[in-house]
Design brief:
The chain is built from 7 helices and 12 strands. The chain is α/β, with parallel strands linked by helices.
Length: about 250
């Protein structure tokens, strides 16, 4: 059984949208993308851990950073009877263009999962062990205090994290750690990391349809590009980590 996690950030065409970037998707295009998903089963992220899950192909939706547009997106998903996971940077709460605590309560009340995206959005693999524990544990508690619901998943900022970060997250009570490695997931999952595909403004509708059809060539191209760009980032992070540990 296969699952694809489609990850979004901000949206334009909404009064609440933040700014134009490669991670900003036109809201009307997003609705067309949702229309194209009708033949696949929408599975909430944490449901992927369920060993009784029996669907050949499925998709999950995640939304990083907690931009104000997430509230409109949650309402749109609710109208379509879909579920998504919204990851919050807790240091940005109640600031301009980001979700307020009341917004988060509203999204949670719609049956959406609220997860952590850390406190500060620093790359976790660049942090000392004490800094890492702080980012993981405090952000988790803040979100739980807002929603009254246990936080069981985290999206690593920048998708940057390895064995150490995953182990620390599991120790803090998370079950799923979201990376941005563009690949499919085999389900049922075991606790640990999941692959997610960042949906950017350069992916047209035909490419999107091929992705959700689990097209091997398109996935290969995305993964090859990801690996090429990730290598220098991981080398730099490992160098910084070694300097901190001296």
């Amino acid at each position: 059984m296969k699952n694809i996690i489609l990850n979004y950030h901000d949206f334009k065409g909404l009064n609440s949208s933040f700014e134009k970037s490669k991670y900003t998707i036109d809201f009307e295009i997003f609705k067309l993308q949702l229309d194209s998903l009708v033949d696949l089963e929408n599975v909430p992220l944490l449901k992927l851990l369920d060993h009784s899950l029996n669907t050949e192909k499925s998709y999950s939706l995640t939304f990083d950073d907690g931009y104000k547009s997430s509230l409109d997106i949650a309402e749109e998903l609710n109208l379509r009877n879909l579920k998504g996971t919204f990851y919050i940077i807790t240091d940005t709460l109640n600031s301009k263009k980001y979700l307020s605590k009341e917004d988060i309560k509203r999204i949670s009340s719609l049956g959406m999962e609220i997860g952590s995206h850390s406190c500060s959005h620093r790359h976790l693999n660049r942090l000392s062990s004490n800094e890492l524990i702080t980012e993981l544990s405090i952000s988790k508690k803040i979100v739980e205090d807002i929603t009254g619901v246990s936080v069981e998943s985290i999206a690593f900022p920048g998708g940057m994290g390895g064995k150490r970060e995953i182990e620390f997250a599991l120790d803090c009570g998370y079950k799923i750690c979201g990376l941005t490695r563009p690949n499919i997931n085999n389900i049922p999952l075991i606790s640990g990391s999941v692959n997610r595909i960042n949906i950017k403004d350069d992916i047209n509708l035909e490419q999107y349809k091929r992705l959700i059809d689990f097209d091997k060539m398109d996935l290969f191209k995305l993964l090859a590009r990801y690996n090429l760009l990730a290598i220098p980032k991981f080398i730099d992070s490992n160098y910084r980590q070694k300097k901190k540990n001296k």
